[in-house]
Design a protein that fits this description.
Blueprint: E1 2-14, E2 20-33, E3 36-42, E4 52-59, E5 62-69, E6 72-78, E7 82-89, E8 92-107, E9 113-123, E10 127-137
């Protein structure tokens, strides 16, 4: 397991609204287990997910994102595929649907690299829009 610095840039574009951008730097950990690379970090108030731990599992052509803490979810990102999951929050449980447009990642033997996602997300008819996530592992 290696300690790393992460530069995380995210954007949300809710249907009919302006783009909302966030950028943060945080510490994380990277490790390999059973033919997958894992990236783990703590969310912050800036991301709106304070109190949650996020784990990204990079395996072949997909990324699985799990969040634990105040809100829990498991999102699966596979280009061109639609996945449905539950989003559990202190305010209730919601059905979430993800349609991934782009999944790219490149991490070298020193655990430096990038992860990029673009996806459409719909939360039980309450919210819908296009999201982008870019993580640079420094």
């Amino acid at each position: 397991m290696k300690n790393v610095i992460l530069k995380i840039t995210g954007s949300q574009m809710p249907a009919g609204e302006e783009e909302d951008l966030i950028e943060l730097m945080t510490e994380g950990k990277v490790y390999e287990k059973e033919n997958a690379t894992y990236l783990v970090y703590e969310e912050s108030e800036l991301s709106g997910m304070e109190g949650c731990t996020t784990t990204l599992k990079l395996i072949e052509d997909k990324i699985i994102m799990k969040r634990f803490g105040n809100a829990t979810s498991q999102l699966i990102f596979e280009k061109g595929k639609r996945h449905v999951s539950n989003y559990n929050t202190p305010y209730g449980n919601f059905r979430m649907e993800i349609l991934t447009k782009e999944v790219e990642y490149s991490i070298d033997e020193n655990y430096k690299g990038t992860i990029s996602l673009e996806y459409r997300m719909s939360i039980q008819g309450l919210s819908e829009g296009t999201n982008r996530l870019h993580i640079e592992i420094i």
